[in-house]
Design brief:
The chain is of the alpha+beta class. It has five helices and five strands, in the order αβααββαββα. The protein has a single domain, classed as 3-Layer(aba) Sandwich (Trna Endonuclease, Chain: A, domain 1), CATH 3.40.1350.
Length: about 120
């Protein structure tokens, strides 16, 4: 018997895929040195409600999206309500097409200035 896919089941599948992507990004950040990085689902309901998916990744406010097609990240960037002076960043995984990171240009330049000031490059 073939099961009919309902919008309820599809919603669960999409949510599960998004949760898996958040866990993956938190793990990658831990491997890069943010030893306490974790999903906001595991850490803070308030941060989750503020559109921040990854906690303990200072100085970053990270929103994660896993989609079938690339979508403009502007709405996602504007949905982050960190208000803590951190850089707002959207990680976007497009299934079978790659992963992308988007941030405001002023934030990117700020990071470059810090790298230059600290003589990292």
């Amino acid at each position: 018997m073939i099961k009919k896919t309902t919008s309820k089941n599809l919603g669960r599948s999409v949510r599960a895929r998004g949760n898996t992507y958040e866990v993956q990004i938190a793990k990658e950040l831990r491997e890069l040195g943010w030893k306490d990085a974790c999903t906001s689902r595991a850490e803070s309901k308030a941060k989750d409600n503020a559109g921040i998916d990854i906690c303990n990744a200072s100085p970053l406010n990270i929103q994660c999206k896993c989609r079938n097609n690339f979508a403009s990240p502007i709405k996602d960037l504007k949905s982050i309500k960190g208000n803590n002076g951190y850089y707002d960043i959207v990680f976007q995984k497009v299934v079978n097409k790659g992963e992308y990171v988007t941030m405001a240009k002023k934030d990117f330049y700020s990071i470059l200035e810090t790298l230059k000031t600290e003589e990292i490059f």
